[in-house]
UniProtKB/TrEMBL annotation:
One GO MF term attached to the UniProt entry: arylformamidase activity
Protein name in UniProt: Cyclase family protein
SUPFAM superfamilies named in the record: Putative cyclase (SSF102198)
Signal peptide positions (record): 1-20
Pfam families per the UniProt record, alphabetical: Cyclase
Keywords assigned: Signal
Organism: Brassicogethes aeneus (Rape pollen beetle)
Record family assignment: Belongs to the Cyclase 1 superfamily.
Biological processes, Gene Ontology terms: L-tryptophan catabolic process to kynurenine
């Protein structure tokens, strides 16, 4: 199957996947929303203000239209960590060049290995990423690295979801040193383990001007696992660009 048929296009601010298409507007694309809804169940770290949607400003009955306010801490639910989060003066979310927010993505699915290990401190190693490349070919320049620990199944149970899966220092350095990635996404609450101090992966990735995507919803079957299933379909029907 042509390598480009594996291309995934990632869109923000609603984090979407599309695959098997050259252009997002193509009718041949299938989209997957990787965001969790913001509601009373949205996961936040302890001590952070949760998502609240409390105040009605206008109602249909009185005003002819409805309008509300909401409030929340930044770092809960599906969200981006901009480089400025750990790198003063670096890009805010608005300053991340837009073309870096629409890119191909590589899914590294470690969920089976995490489940088999039973290790609460499971972390992704450079060897995991190098092994991915042995199977799939080199990571593409200008892509986003998605790491699936299989943790979305615990959403929104805070006790189980706020865990210790992580990108350790050596892996974060490996990712930055590739000089290929625009960002890194995880299906956990943080790129660092919940008890990490200091937050080394944050420091390395964000100082490298990558952005993090945390609390991604990866419960859907994603293109990395659909690749074989749909490969014939790709070859017959998709004009790969
Ligand atoms: Zn964050």
């Amino acid at each position: 199957m042509p390598r480009n048929a594996h291309k995934i296009i990632l869109l923000f601010t609603s984090i979407l996947f599309a695959w098997a298409c050259g252009r997002p507007e193509s009718k041949k694309c299938t989209y997957i929303d990787l965001s969790w809804p913001f509601d009373n169940d949205t996961v936040y770290w302890p001590g952070l203000p949760s998502f609240t949607f409390p105040e009605v400003l206008d109602t249909y009955a009185q005003d002819g239209f409805s309008m509300f306010t909401y409030s929340a801490a930044e770092h809960g639910g599906t969200h981006i960590d901009a480089p400025v989060h750990f790198n003063p003066g670096a890009w805010t979310v608005a300053e991340i060049p837009f073309e870096r927010l629409i890119s191909t993505a590589a899914l590294v699915d470690l969920s089976d290995e995490v489940a088999a290990s039973g290790d609460p401190n499971f972390y992704v190693t450079p060897e995991h990423l190098e092994n991915w490349e042995k199977v799939n070919g080199p990571f593409e320049n200008g892509s986003v690295l998605l790491i699936k620990f299989g943790w979305s199944k615990y959403w929104p149970n805070k006790t189980n979801y706020l865990g210790l899966k992580s990108i350790p220092k050596e892996t974060a350095e490996w990712i930055v040193n590739q000089n290929k990635f625009y960002g890194v996404g995880v299906d956990t609450a943080s790129v660092d383990a919940g008890n990490a101090n200091p937050l080394v992966a944050h420091q390395i990735l964000l100082k490298g001007y990558l952005y993090n995507m945390e609390m991604i919803n990866m419960n859907e079957e994603l293109p990395g696992t659909l690749r074989k299933k749909y490969s014939n379909h790709y070859q017959k029907n998709i004009n790969v660009q």
